[in-house]
Amino acid sequence: MNHIDRLIVFYFSGTGNSRRIALWLSELALENNIPCCSYDIATTDISTVQPIDNSATIVLISPVHGFNFPEITLNFIRNLPKGKNRIVLMNTRAGIKLSKFIIPGLTGIAFMLAAAILKSKGYTIAGQIPFDMPSNWISIHPALRSRHIEFILTKNHDKVITHFERLNAGETDFASNKDIVQDILISPVALAYYFIGRYFFAKSYYASDQCIHCDLCIKECPVKAIEKVEGRPYWTFRCENCMRCMNNCPTNAIETTHGLWIIILLLTPVVCSLLYYGILPTSLHHGLAHFILFNFIFLALITLLYRIQQMALKNKICSKIISWMSLTHYKFWGRYKCK
C-alpha cells in the first residue's frame, strides 16, 4: 500500500547530481503508480505551479554550497506558500570514493535552516536525507575518475530506493541525524561562507583563450550571474558556484583563477594591517573593528583585482600567464560530467 498519494519534486541542480536524484525518485514513483511531477527550481516560478493538494508529499532536493543551501534554493523555500504537506528535504553533498567506501560531505545548517522556514509556514518535515554524490567542485580538486563516479552513483541509487521505500511505507526518515554533531560544529563556517566566502568563489572563474564565444555559459547559468564584459564572460557576485559553466563548457575554456586567489590572500592581511595600525585611532583597535576591516578589504580587493584581471585577459601574454597559474588549465585536472 502506498502512503504517498502524490509526489511533487522540486530540485536545483548545477551539474546534474540533484537532477539525477529527482529522476530516480520520479522513476520509483511511476513504478509504484504514484502520480509525480518534477520542477527545476531555476526555471520554475512557484506562483505558476498549480495549487498543491495537502495530501501530496513534497520533496526538495538541492546541493550544499558552503554547508548551506544556495541562495536560489533558500529564496524558493521562502517563497513557497503556506501549506500542511509532508516535506522531505534532501541534499547532494561532495562524495569522494576511498577504497570501497564513500567519504561523506557535510550538510551544515542546510537542513536546520530550511526546516525552520518550512515549519513556520505550516509544513511537516517528514525526512532529512543527505546523498553523497560525486564531488563536482573542480575549483578545489581534480575531476573524479569515471569508475569512481559510477561507483558513487550506484551506491546512491541504492540509497534512493531504500529511502523511497521507507517514506512510501509511511515512515519518517531523518538519516541526517547521525551527522548532527559535526553539522552544528561546522555551522560557523557555513555562516562565514554565506556572508563572505561565496562572493570570493563567485569571482573565481574566467574564460581563457580557448573560449569560442558560444555564450553557452551565459545562456545556461541558472541564476543569470554571467555577463559579457570586455568581450568575455564575466562572473558577477550573483554566482552560486554551482559549477555548471565550468563543467559544461565545450572547450574547457572556463578556468579557476588560482593565481588571483594567492594574490588576494597575501594582500588582504597586509593592506588590513596597514590601515588598522596606520589610520584607525587606537580607540578602535579591537577584534570587531579588525574583523569588519579585514572583510571589507577582502571583498574590495576581490572586486578590484577581478576587474583588472578581466581587462588583462585581452592581452595574449597576460592571458597565458593567468592560465598557467590555474590548475584547471591543465588536462590532468579534468571536468566533472554527470550524464
Automatic annotation (TrEMBL):
<keyword id="KW-0479">Metal-binding</keyword>
<dbReference type="GO" id="GO:0051539">
    <property type="term" value="F:4 iron, 4 sulfur cluster binding"/>
</dbReference>
<keyword id="KW-0408">Iron</keyword>
<keyword id="KW-0472">Membrane</keyword>
<keyword id="KW-0670">Pyruvate</keyword>
<feature type="transmembrane region" description="Helical">
    <location>
        <begin position="285"/>
        <end position="306"/>
    </location>
</feature>
<dbReference type="InterPro" id="IPR029039">
    <property type="entry name" value="Flavoprotein-like_sf"/>
</dbReference>
<keyword id="KW-1133">Transmembrane helix</keyword>
<feature type="transmembrane region" description="Helical">
    <location>
        <begin position="101"/>
        <end position="118"/>
    </location>
</feature>
<dbReference type="Pfam" id="PF13187">
    <property type="entry name" value="Fer4_9"/>
</dbReference>
<keyword id="KW-0411">Iron-sulfur</keyword>
<feature type="domain" description="4Fe-4S ferredoxin-type">
    <location>
        <begin position="238"/>
        <end position="259"/>
    </location>
</feature>
<dbReference type="InterPro" id="IPR047964">
    <property type="entry name" value="EFR1-like"/>
</dbReference>
<protein>
    <submittedName>
        <fullName>Pyruvate:ferredoxin oxidoreductase, delta subunit</fullName>
    </submittedName>
</protein>
<keyword id="KW-0004">4Fe-4S</keyword>
<dbReference type="InterPro" id="IPR017900">
    <property type="entry name" value="4Fe4S_Fe_S_CS"/>
</dbReference>
<feature type="domain" description="4Fe-4S ferredoxin-type">
    <location>
        <begin position="202"/>
        <end position="231"/>
    </location>
</feature>
<feature type="transmembrane region" description="Helical">
    <location>
        <begin position="260"/>
        <end position="279"/>
    </location>
</feature>
<keyword id="KW-0812">Transmembrane</keyword>
<dbReference type="GO" id="GO:0046872">
    <property type="term" value="F:metal ion binding"/>
</dbReference>
<dbReference type="InterPro" id="IPR050157">
    <property type="entry name" value="PSI_iron-sulfur_center"/>
</dbReference>
<dbReference type="InterPro" id="IPR017896">
    <property type="entry name" value="4Fe4S_Fe-S-bd"/>
</dbReference>
